[in-house]
Amino acid sequence: MDLIKILEYKRWSDRRILDAVAELDQEEQNRALDFARQQLNHMVRVEELFQARLRGVADPHDSTNTEHLPELDELDARLMAANKWLQAYAGSLTASQLKENISFTFVDGKRGRLSREEALFHLINHGTYHRGAIGHALDLAGGQRPADTYNVFIHAAEPERRG
Fold it and tell me: How far apart are CA 160 and CA 38, in angstroms?
């Protein structure tokens, strides 16, 4: 599959969940909003950690979450910036560079090694997991859970496939 297309799908899916969370009422649906912010904060921090690992620079965080949760608009800006970076980065790599291994230390102190392609796939898959958890919280709070499957994305992006 085309990695760039899959990263476009990730960005699209992240945008949809961010927009749905933004619709939550801060007074009546505050538990769901706080849960979504916690999940988004974790997503953003993991993306920023792996971005640093892919670039070969020091980790910007010493944990994958924080006690204090940033506001939704900050999380939105950081997640969209991470998506933009991932797409540009993936587009700049050759096939052989995608296969290159990167070695790093997780925030728990354990060592890890992934190919650049595997690290990108991890971020795609990681976001899917946490968007699902946020979607469940939206369901429980009576919010609007956006459909974010690849099938919905590809048919929205390429409506001629419906014919």
Answer: 38
> Which CATH number do you get for residue 149?
1.20.120.450
Is residue 130 a known part of a binding site? yes
Is 42 one of the annotated binding-site residues? yes
Does 61 count as an annotated binding residue?
A: no
Which residues on adjacent β-strands are paired with residue 104?
112
Report the DSSP beta bridge partners of residue 103: 113
Round to whole Å and give the CA distance between 59 and 48.
8
Number of structural domains, the chain? 1
**Owning domain of residue 52:** 3-162
Q: Could you give the CA distance from residue 14 to residue 76 in angstroms, rounded to a whole number?
A: 9
pLDDT, tens digit (0-9, with 9 covering 90-100), for 12-39? 999 999 999 999 999 999 999 999 999 9
